[in-house]
Write a structure and sequence with these properties.
There is one protein chain. By secondary structure, this protein is an alpha/beta fold. The chain is built from 6 helices and 5 strands, in the order αβαβαβαβαβα. Helix content is 62%, strand content 14%. Mean pLDDT is 85; it is low at 3-8.
Length: 178
Amino acid sequence: MTPQESNAASAAMRGRLLIVDDESAQLRALCETLGLEGYSTEGFASPRAALAALQPGRYELLLTDLMMPEMDGIELIAAARRIDPELGAVVMTGNASVDSAVQAMRGGALDYILKPFRLSVILPVIERARDIQRLRRDNARLLDAERRHAADLAAAYQDLEAFSYSVSHDLRAPLLFV
């Protein structure tokens, strides 16, 4: 395996991130830094351009700036979830208020990160958000399996009831003719 293939494989294993920030220097720094940490990153300075590139299942996590000129991060999360309902989101903000954090969480963000970034803070937030996404997927799979099993059980119960009725009817029939 070549070094490029090895880097691509580790990036794919670590996670695919869609990063949206209207400040190009921060966007570039974040993409490069997270790329060095093994993530596959794609960055956009425009929320509309990011939405145009978004396809279901292409990214695991959206990291978006909260305040941008075209649309804010919460609007972007809502629009992105209409395209990919499975997409997790983390809001990045320089506005460190409780209100902005609550607003971001109500808007569908799993967490938020304060600017300026520190790698020691951003990496655990990303991993926590990815873990939450994994748990949600696993939970959805388990609920789906439970629904299938319940439907199978209901069908088996109906078959058993029909068989029981048939046997009961057949056992009574000879007594009626005697």
